[in-house]
Structure formats: C-alpha cells, structure tokens
Amino acid sequence: MNRQQLARNLATSLTLGAWTEDELRQVLTRRLPPPLHRLAPAIASRLLQALPWRYAPSPREVARELLQLPEFNRIHRFLSLIPI
C-alpha cells in the first residue's frame, strides 16, 4: 500500500469519531498492529496541535497532516515489511 493510500484510509477512520485526543488514541490503537500501539499518543497529540478544531476536519486534511509525521513514516515502513 502506498503512503497516500494508507494516510487516506487511516484519516477516514480518525474523522468518524469525536475529534479528541482520547478518541484519536483509541482509533489508532484499534487500527495499528500491536507493535505500533505506542505511537498512538504522539500521533493523536500532533494531529490535535496541527488541526486544533472543535469538530473533526475532513479526511483529506487529516491525511495531509499524517503524511508529515515521522510516526506515520514508521507505520508505513512497518506495514511495508509485512508480506501480503
């Protein structure tokens, strides 16, 4: 899966619930493989800093921010190593 597609898929999940740090952490923990769960708090915090809105932004905006995060690069690298 390429980086943009992964970012769009994850962003869609993140924008379905409440736009709070706790909700974002929960969604990330559900969606990420167990070895990557420790990245969830940092990603949630960075997204809320970059997009400090009361309601969830569009998936496109979240995907754009995800692509900028070093933690997202780690997720992509990890998932790229898993054979399909």
Describe the structure in brief.
The chain has five helices and no strands.
Class based on secondary structure composition and strand pairing? mainly alpha
Distance between the termini: 10 Å
| Relative helix content | 55-70%
Backbone CA Rg: 12 Å
Q: Could you give the count of β-strands?
A: 0
The H/E string reads HHHHH
Strand coverage percent: under 5%
Q: Any low-confidence stretches, pLDDT <50, length ≥5?
A: none
Shape: globular
Mean pLDDT: 94
Main beta sheet strand tally, sense and closure: none
Tally of separate helices: 5
Structural commentary:
The chain is mainly alpha-helical and 84 residues long. The chain is built from five helices and no strands. The chain has helices at residues 3-14, 21-31, 40-50, 59-66, 70-80.
